[in-house]
Amino acid sequence: MEVMEPISRSSALINKEDCCILIIDVQICFMKGLKDENSEIFLNKMKHLIRISQVLDIPIIITAENIQENGTVHEEILRILEYKVKIFDKFIYSCWGQKDIQDEIKKHQKRVVILCGLETDVCIMQTAIDLLDNGYRVVLLSDLTFSRNMTEHQLGLKRIESQGAIVSLLKTWQEEITAGIRTKINKIIKMHNLDNI
């Protein structure tokens, strides 16, 4: 099949070359607000995001809050990462407020941060606002974030969007960076059986 790339693209659209992924605090202690079936959907989508990032060489940054007390990142996430990614032990709600995490974000020299994890109204919201304030574009994957209840989640989303972040979905972001059915990126995604979310 002939490769076909877009002849032009708006600067408002997200390109994979500009992205890094920031996954915040996907720990069992924070997932207790999710029902079992929702927890499974969330973890499957999170694993899909990680696989996409791996095959497209998009940098992944992962945090866990106070590992000694709360435990590390969920085992299913660690397995899909093959235990190869450093988990940043986080003690400040905003990732930007902790020097080692901020340094890691800066190191990748990406201007778009794809944000997901827990909890929408606390760590996600504070991180998003700090990133926006420091010149980053923030894309929040709303189906890969949540809080302990829907009210907190919705309030967090509203605050984040009001500050200028793009609130999106995993599927929407994936199709946005793919840009078409015959593009090079789409061929890679299909080759790895990642075209269905």
The CATH H-level superfamily is Isochorismatase-like
SSE string, helix = H, strand = E? EHEHHEHEHEHEHH
Number of domains: 1
Q: Which sheet architecture does the biggest sheet show? A: 6 strands, parallel
> What's the end-to-end separation, in Å?
23 Å
User: Roughly how much helix do the residues carry, as a percent range?
Assistant: 40-55%
Which class do the helix and strand fractions yield?
Answer: alpha/beta
CATH architecture: 3-Layer(aba) Sandwich
- Give me the Rg, rounded: 16 Å
Shape: globular
Low-pLDDT residue spans: none
Question: What key phrases describe this protein's structure?
Answer:
Rossmann fold; 42% helix; 197 residues; 8 helices; alpha/beta; six-stranded parallel sheet
Describe this protein's structure.
This protein has 197 residues and is α/β, with parallel strands linked by helices. It has a single domain, classed as 3-Layer(aba) Sandwich (Rossmann fold). The protein contains eight helices and six strands. It has helices at 36-55, 67-70, 75-80, 99-107, 120-133, 150-162, 170-178, 184-191; strands at residues 19-24, 60-65, 87-90, 112-118, 137-146, 166-168. Strands 3-2-1-4-5-6 form a six-stranded parallel β-sheet, sandwiched between helices. Strand 4 (112-118), helix 5 (120-133) and strand 5 (137-146) form a beta-alpha-beta unit. Helix 5 (120-133) runs parallel beside helix 6 (150-162). The longest helix is centred in the first third of the chain and has 20 residues, at 36-55. The two termini are 23 Å apart. 35% of the residues are buried.
